[in-house]
Amino acid sequence: METPSPSVINASNVDDGDDIEILEKKPIEKESEPPKKRGKKETSNMLINQEGKLKSKKIDKQLSRQLCVEAIIEHDFPYSFVDYKGIRKWIKYLNPDVIMPSRNTTVSDVKKNYEKEKEKVKQEMARIPNRVCLTSDVWTACTSEGYICLTAHFVDENWKLRSIILNFCRMLPPHTGVELSNTILNCLKEWSLEKKVFSLTLDNASSNDNMQDILKRQLCLNEDLLCDGDYFHIRCFAHILNLIVQEGLKVASDALHKIRESVKYVKASDGRMQKFDDCVRESGGVETGPGIRLDVTTRWNSTYLMLESVLHYQKAFTRLNLIDRNYKYCPSVEEWRRATKMREFLEPFFETTNLISGSKYLTSNLYFMQVWKIECMLNASLTNEDEVIRDMAHRMKVKFDKYWSEYSEVLAFGAILNPRSKLEFLQFCYSELDPLTSEVKVQNVRMKLYKLYKQYEKRDEESSSTPQS
């Protein structure tokens, strides 16, 4: 059986585990030693260690296997894993003295190393006294293959925020709530985490709503969730914010379409880019020189960045429209004005998205304040003198009320437990939005937090009184 070429077999078209069956066992090929040159001393292939003894420069097979695994794991390996010829070239480039093991040996060593490191992480997570928060996402690749990723977030024994991918695998159809919940539950059991889960953050896909409901009921059967799973499901803030802003952008869809098509037109060829650069220079140039960016229509923050970049080049696009008869997408003066207003209005939302999307710091304590700021901005913009901003704010407020009528109050707990905020901050925020209902909302959050604390305290006492095996 010949070694498959990477164009036929790669990471995208090999099912899980198939790489081991595909790789046929072959004997380890011994590397032929280069011919000795005349006049070279016999000690040329030897090194003198600290004890004055000679030892061979050639690395033994066991060390070569270790170096091979380390190179694959630690380096940015540029070849498909099953492209063994590519691995040989890369490892030899990193260390010419390595005696390459066979393909099956390499696969076996990497799997053993993975299992060893996985066991270390499992033991570490078993020692933490607190619970873990989960995030999960499912998507379809360009090859129409589905994938699912499950990540655990927790604070370790050294009070450091940790995020660990528990599972990243193919998700075969159908992507129903039942199948998704079974996949996640099996992963939790594999990592012995089914009794340590606090919450699961998901986007707003309907299949995810069904999945979390099934998974919550499965975990509640054994009383594995706090407060009967009242705080188990958390909707992804960044995803909701994206839906809200996308609704507002519909007001100026014509202006956005012209700007987007203008960027596409200029970036379509080097000749057009050169002509556009000439227009920039003839228009007086741009001091900041950010360059024009094309957005991804499903991500509103990239649309904001596109607006921010393009607005520097209004004169250049206008000049291009005069000299290039094929360019037919130049926005009008009114559409440029509308784009400028949109960028100013969306800037606070862009800053909030960047803040809440951080991965190197805690974000749960920031959540309540950011939601409150957004609602305050939308309420203030409902009476804005500019018609475009008013219409955007109205659309976004309707979407906001739809999602935040069911937002998880556990995220308000983060603001209370933050020493810089506490309960007084919650009272201030609620009173600013609606003084008539603020006291009732604060008392409701206070009682739920007390209930959560008492249940967690009870669980802690039960676990400490259970004799260790």
UniProtKB/TrEMBL annotation:
Residues 357-456 form the hAT-like transposase RNase-H fold domain. The keyword Lipid biosynthesis does not apply. InterPro entries: hAT-like_transposase_RNase-H, RNaseH-like_sf, ZnF_BED_domain_contain. It is found in: Nucleus. Residues 104-131 form a coiled coil. GO terms for molecular function: DNA binding; zinc ion binding. Residues 1-51 are annotated as: Disordered. It holds the Pfam family hAT-like_RNase-H. Residues 22-36 have a biased composition (Basic and acidic residues). Keywords: Coiled coil, DNA-binding, Metal-binding, Nucleus, Zinc, Zinc-finger. GO terms for cellular component: nucleus. Residues 1-13 have a biased composition (Polar residues). PANTHER family: ZINC FINGER BED DOMAIN-CONTAINING PROTEIN 39 (PTHR46481:SF10), ZINC FINGER BED DOMAIN-CONTAINING PROTEIN 4 (PTHR46481). This is Zinc finger BED domain-containing protein RICESLEEPER 2-like.
